[in-house]
Design goal:
Elements (H helix, E strand, L loop, with lengths): L1 E3 L6 E3 L17 H9 L2 H6 L8 H6 L3
Antiparallel strand pairs: 1-2
């Protein structure tokens, strides 16, 4: 996944081919991994952003 800097609030874009520009992060495709990453606030830390991120597209991609 990569961060879409043009969106407000910042949101995640699922990069299946791993070719989009920008700062990215990896996550397992299991819903439990997403829940754990959210609890640990891993996404803002990995992507170096302040504040909340819109994870709707990532949840949709993982089937949640």
């Amino acid at each position: 996944m990569v961060l879409d800097p043009a969106a407000a609030p910042a949101r995640i874009v699922v990069d299946v081919r791993a070719c989009l520009p920008g700062r990215g992060a990896w996550i397992h495709s299991r819903p439990e991994c997403l829940e754990l990453a959210e609890r640990r606030r891993a996404f803002p830390r990995a992507l170096r952003v302040g504040g909340p991120l819109d994870l709707a597209r990532l949840r949709e991609h993982l089937g949640r």
